[in-house]
Amino acid sequence: MQNDHAAKSGSSIKKYFLPKNLKKDIPSSIVVFLVALPLCLGIALASGAPLFAGLVSGIVGGIVIGAASGSQLSVSGPAAGLTVIVLGAITQLNNYPMFMMAVMLAGVLQIVLGLIKAGTIGNYFPSSVIEGMLAAIGLILILKQLPHALGVDSDFFGDEGFFQRDHENTFSAIQSALGHFSLAAVVISSVSIAILLLWPKIKGVALIPAPLIVVLVGIALNFVFQNSGSALRSEQLVAIPVINGWGEFTSLFQLPDFASVTNPKVLIIAATIAVVASLESLLSLEAIDKIDPIKRVSPTNRELVAQGLGNMTSGFLGGLPLTSVIVRSSANTNAGARTKMSTIMHGCLLLLSFLFIPTIINLIPLACLAAILLVTGYKLTRIALFKHMYQKGWDQFIPFVATVTAVLFTDLLKGVGIGMAVSIFYLLRTNMRNPFFYKIQEEGDKKNLRIKLAEEVSFLNKASIQVMLNNIPGETTVIIDGKNSRYIDPDVLETIYNFKHNAYTKGIIVILENIKKHYTVPKINNNIKEELENK
Questions:
Q1: Chain centroid, CA 37 distance in Å
Q2: Which domain of life, per UniProt (predicted)?
Q3: How crowded is residue 528: how many other Cβ atoms within 10 Å of its Cβ?
Q4: DSSP state string for 272-316
Q5: Domains of the chain by start residue, with CATH
Q6: 481 φ, ψ to 5°?
Q7: Pairwise CA distance, residues 455 & 38, whole Å
Q8: pLDDT tens readout for residues 147-178
Q9: What span, in angstroms and rounded, lies between the C-alpha atoms of 497 and 491?
Q10: What phi and psi, each to the nearest 5 degrees, are found at residue 126?
Q11: Which residues sit opposite 441 in a β-bridge?
């Protein structure tokens, strides 16, 4: 048995080094690296943290979480959705080592959540809401990156909120950018988009990722504009910190304030980060599984443990809180990644670029990277997706549109919450109208009714059963048959027994057949459960 397990583990590790997978994963890692680099820096800047903290987070998210996660395509890093929480926490504590301790404690809480299997909540997000979230992220990428593509970088790279720190909103920022655009940035972003669309169609160059060509061409074009006197300004280029020697590198690190582990403020911040980061990670994981071409299903509880390990490491090294991030993950998927090696390698590239080639990295125009995200956004929010959701019916389309709109005008978690509320409304509405869980048979003089309950009768069926029972005419004999039912919800049972108790006032005779006073939820066969867990 142990030999079989060791053989399975060995074969699963080998798949990461198969040439057919590496051929896809290596180019994908370069794409994710190019996307993640400015996002890490921008989110650190917006969070009021050192730029170094953003890089540490990206590196840990790639290497530590990438190795520990069960997802093959998910990419973790600092998330734009946490910037407000992080900025508020750093301001409130006014002590960065204390904030580091809060991030570490958040990681501990996430590991506990994973061990108690809280990740199963991720299985309850409706498909229409997840699809809406993906489409909304795509629209946000397009709308938010347009100013950067035009050369206006007053807002931080990676902002996803509708209302911006520069007192603009998503739409007013575009309008303002149209009046203050940079010719060099427009040319670079336009050429970049053309390369991204046309390069994959050229035979024999598939091994060289289009985004890498985009970056090289962008740097070259900026040199051309520099010679003509209209080069990009420093704020329109990537700005990675430059270090001089190993001593300067090690001086960037500081230890968390372990003495603050019992500080109530630190504990509250840790709990807040743990809950929000866990929800964002589960949402991202569900979304990436949706667009995985191989349709793999990622283990949610393992993901929470992996996120916890990542946050403990990031907090110890001085980084920001981490989550699985849809933008990086979707860029990874669209680039053709096959295994988690792409995620791990992107973390290694972040580390190597910071240590050895920061001056070269700082030559990259943000307009190039904006173009990459614009194309990624287009793939996420394609028109075909809206048509597909419309064809699935109003009960799917309206929650989908509600989620898209809410995420666009608020933020990820609030938008998903609104989408969930709309989806639940349609779920209850469907259960009210759909009598699949019972059958009425008229017998004899049509005054005898037999109601056969289905195999599973849940709480969601309560309202419909209540309405049906209240509409039974007087002077009727009603037989409620639970022969086929493996489970009947306690609230439904209470409704049935209350109806029997009061039915005599209408002259209704109620006979209960094969209905127990208590039901337990059916359990999965232990053998099947063990087999599923082993897989």
A1: 19
A2: Bacteria
A3: 9
A4: HHHHHHHHHHHHHHHHHHHH-TT-----HHHHHHHHHHHHHHHHH
A5: 17-388 (no CATH), 440-513 (3.30.750.24)
A6: -105, 120
A7: 54
A8: 999 999 888 888 888 888 888 899 999 999 99
A9: 10
A10: -60, 150
A11: 450
